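I'll show a sample.
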Amino acid sequence: MSSPVRILQILSSVGKNSGIASVVLNWHRRLDRSRFQFDYLLFLRYPENESFESEIKQLGGRIHYLPLKGRVPGISFFRDSYRFFKEHNYPVVHSHVVHLSLFFYPLAKYLGKPKIIQHAHSTRWSDKKLNAVRNYLCLHSVWPLIDCRLACSDMTGKDFYKKNYTVINNGIDLAAFRFNPQIREQKRAELQLQGKLVVGHIGRFEIPKNHFFLIDIFEQIHRRQPNAVLLLLGKGSRFEAVQKYVRGKNLQKEVFFLGVRNDVSDWLQAMDIFLLPSLFEGLPVVGVEAQAAGLPCVFADTITPEVLLGNARQVSLAQTAAHWADIALEMASQGRKTTDALTNFDIGKTTEKLSHIYEKFCG
């Protein structure tokens, strides 16, 4: 029996806090691994208990590291990259990063001639102006080397590529997120949330997720409904700053910082309303997961409208926190609902679509 074709996935890390890593792992779990297998090239490393490293190895994937010291790649990084692509000849390189494309793509093409797939997951080049300019210039300088352009949504594709792209939805295991009243009561009991209005959010504690505004919204919700609590799942560089902000508003007893979790689907069962006031997104996986759990959702208007799959609304970030709170409470009063529109995000379908692209390149 022939060995599977190994596809190289380039990511910054496989930390459980990364939405992109979660997307790729969802594909990896459902991939027909007798045909294709994923290997990973990373330049950031998370602690073992906060990453997918062990699961990747259990799935048969190999992990390679090219440590990036500082923000600007130096001569040693270029040398290590050269050695890597000289030693590893992958037929397909599927990249989810931008700023290192100027290093990786010419080396990969020169040393191995793989098909290169660029995958866009956001509608912005970066949350910082200088990084956005850097990323744009890096990618456009190697534009002719890219064989396939993928995007997580049509809005992302138009903003990132303008034209000639293929949308691959961020697939999830719909069954794993289906509403379960037993799990709901169990998780609420863990934090003694019985009789509470539970507001939820999942995301990295970084600038794009807009946590400070999220806390402002929750403050307004709590003023209107004193039994409200907020669950925050995730970690990041702004974790302690957000905790300090919560203490400054004297909401520390109402806001629960749950960190990086392996049981995200269970905590979605415990929530009553899901908020995502992000400054920018592609098509957020957590938004799909929340709606798969039947949750009413309020999304920022900076997120692609393609995320509106069930009982969900978009609100402008120009609106006040009080306005957001009014909408959130109105949505929460409607309760849970399910929708057939989620079938397009079934992980089986999205993995099959991706496999067809690999098959086209690999024969």
The two ends are 17 Å apart (CA to CA). Residues 310 and 339 are 5 Å apart (CA to CA).
